[in-house]
Amino acid sequence: MFFYVFVIVVVVIWAHKFYGLDGLLVKWRSKRDLHIQYKEPIEKYNRFYQRLPQKSKIIFEQKVNYFLYTKEFIPRTIEEVTDEMKALISATAVQLTFGLPDITLKHFDKI
């Protein structure tokens, strides 16, 4: 039994190191529905999103989710970055890159 657990742990560590399972986890999370605390401000304030057809809205939301999970939001002159701020910042970044499938602004890890 110990041998099987050991083999599984070694395989997971190896796969994590060489295949970046963190990236796969982020991609999986980004395919989930956008949480309501992020979706409401986007629906209310983002005119670009409001005018998209339903199919494109789903893609937009997935890209917003990906942006949210891959960026660290750091407050500078304010006490905290609220969920509404995160949603609108993420939606603006997605709006800039919407239609460009491989552009994720990965060189910006802190916002």
UniProtKB/TrEMBL annotation:
The chain crosses the membrane at residues 6-26. The keyword Transmembrane helix applies. Pfam families: Peptidase_M90. The lineage of its organism: unclassified sequences, metagenomes, ecological metagenomes. This is Uncharacterized protein. Keywords: Membrane, Transmembrane, Transmembrane helix.
